[in-house]
Task: structure prediction
Amino acid sequence: MKQNIDSFIDSHIDEMISDLQKLIKIPSYNQPAKENMPYGENVALCLDTFLEMAKSMGFKTHNFDNYVGTIELGENPELGILCHLDVVPEGTGWTNDPFSAIVEDGKIFGRGAIDDKGPAIAVLYAMKAIKELNIPLKNGVRFIVGCDEECGSSDLEYYKTKEKFPPMVFTPDGSYPIINIEKGQCRVCFEASFEKNENTKRIISINGGQTVNAVPTNSNAVICGIDLDVIKAAISQLNLDAKFELKEQEGFTVIEVVGKGAHASTPDLGINAVTAIIKLLSNLPFDDSKDFEYIKSLDKVLPHGDVKGDNIKVACKDEKSRELSLAFSIFNFNELGFEGHMDIRFPTCTTFDNVKNILNNSFSDININIKEIYGVEPHQTSEDSEFVQKLLKVYEEQTGLKGECLAIGGGTYVHDIEGGVAFGAEFPNQEHNMHGADEFIEIETLSKNSKIFAHSIVELLG
Ligand SMILES: [Zn+2]
Result:
């Protein structure tokens, strides 16, 4: 039977490629809603095209008002497989038209090739293989295809108002082997205000960072009253990993800092330009003032290099989901006040409420006000469950690689689905330019995914 599945997929690879090309050719990124099309015309067309493919294979399908579609294999779905047909916009830098779905060197290029249209085709053909080979299943499989993964997953919210998820769900919208833990997330906006500082030696402005979920690459400050030599001496004494550049401009000094960007869930991979500039400023001999006090306090609670929240006292870790991470991502300071943002990813040993209470205390100690705070609890599906163990077994058999569970700081499509894990579609150390220029999927990866999904269905339900 295992051989039958593999040869079925191998003999249908040309159809899989051509079906994937049909999907890639529809630029299904989020557009303004039209009547009965919550995500615009192209997303609805892509869903319809996909459900028609499934129907022509003999599957029962359902379209939930162009939010999400389902494709059923058998009755009483016990396993859900979740993919999405929406994509991010094409962006720039492509070698060829991002929607032409060109095939070259064993790869299919195009926006959505790996995220997540290729995996969706792999699932569909895995189901077709089982259906046509008449492999008996104890319970059914429900393939759920969403249309809003890239813009907030309102598709799944809609689905929940109509239907339940099966007890086991995997999504090939991440990477192998299995992601079973996703840290909780907390975003904070904090602020303070003060009187205008009339001292000679003072800070005029500080700006850095643009997105709350990224380690800021750049920052700058405008200051006055401090000699260039003094600033240079402080820079060399602090010996930070960021790059500093100084310019004199009409009696002011402009300090520009370049660090290194990274996703907020992996701040250890970046060099934070905001915390670097705060570190430098807090070490310069400004005249005493309320605003300078704030800079020194910020340097104490959120110092450069502290990506675990030790100094603001939220640091914690557990064995499986590891350490809390913290990125001070945006900072805007002027002569009357400042506003800052940070992004925290916390392990399963704590809760959003707990993180919130600690931040409240730490900030109120230094008279900083929390303006907004928002959080999502961690997601976890037991590693010891039969579901996860069987998926790992299939993965090992099919790839010869070691199967193991991973914990990540980012969220996947199953973050809010109980019993959900991410399983595929990227293999370890693969790079497919997801969300970037020249996104692609290897035909080999498409085929291997389809085989893994078919064998997983049989392992779980056969
Ligand atoms: Zn995706």
